Amino acid sequence: MIRKCKEHGYFRGESCPDCGDEGRYVLDDDREERLGRFISGALRHFPEDVGIEMDPQGWVELNQLCDVMKKRYKWGTMERLISLVESDRKGRYEIDDDFIRARYGHSVEVDLISEYPENDLSYLYYGVSQEEADMLLDNGIYPIRQCYVHLSTSFDKAKEAASVHTDNPVILEVDAETAQQDGVDIVTVNDDIVLARGIPPEYISVVEESGE
């Protein structure tokens, strides 16, 4: 559920995490999920299919997206769209003046490397299944269904992400500092996610436990 605190803005849950106020109702769980799926599809996977125009960096006009959304969901409003973005703990989307885009997760071709700051962490992490590990160590990490490889900024975040797909993930460590010195572009999207077009195998090793 999304609600709005007068002092701290939109939040998800029963009460404002900053002050405990219950806030004003904006969106229930079912509509939040439905609207979230639509926005994800429109901004990451099939903008043309829903009738919106996307620029090379993934930006679309906020009003255009809202108009398309209202045709599908009569209850869709600009406030509910903005509340979905501003309350998202994972920082999936961003709004800049009259434009909106997904920060990551695109299957349509977009140029994000030039849009975000260069990664400043020496090491990054990537969780995979036991079956995938040897193949990636030999061949490198490259996107399959998305435009970019999504690396994690910590061992724990990589394990959390990989655990959605496999019960016993292998965590790979990427020597990002050396890779970037050698010309591999790696950019920071948010506190948890870093993007690259691909990571060659010479920069990858296996991490057995957190902190090694």
TrEMBL record:
Naturally occurring in which organism (per UniProt): Methanolobus tindarius DSM 2278
Top-level lineage group: Archaea
HAMAP family registered for this protein in UniProt: KptA (MF_00299)
Protein name stated in the entry: Probable RNA 2'-phosphotransferase
Biological role: Removes the 2'-phosphate from RNA via an intermediate in which the phosphate is ADP-ribosylated by NAD followed by a presumed transesterification to release the RNA and generate ADP-ribose 1''-2''-cyclic phosphate (APPR>P). May function as an ADP-ribosylase.
EC class of the enzyme, as a word: transferase
UniProt-listed GO biological process terms: tRNA splicing, via endonucleolytic cleavage and ligation
Family classification: Belongs to the KptA/TPT1 family.
Keywords noted in UniProt: NAD, Transferase
E.C. number(s) listed in UniProt: 2.7.1.-
Gene3D superfamilies cross-referenced by the UniProt entry: 3.20.170.30, RNA 2'-phosphotransferase, Tpt1/KptA family, N-terminal domain
InterPro entries: Ptrans_KptA/Tpt1, RNA_2'-PTrans_C, RNA_2'-PTrans_KptA, RNA_2'-PTrans_N
Gene that this sequence comes from: kptA
UniProt-recorded Gene Ontology molecular function terms: NAD+ poly-ADP-ribosyltransferase activity; tRNA 2'-phosphotransferase activity
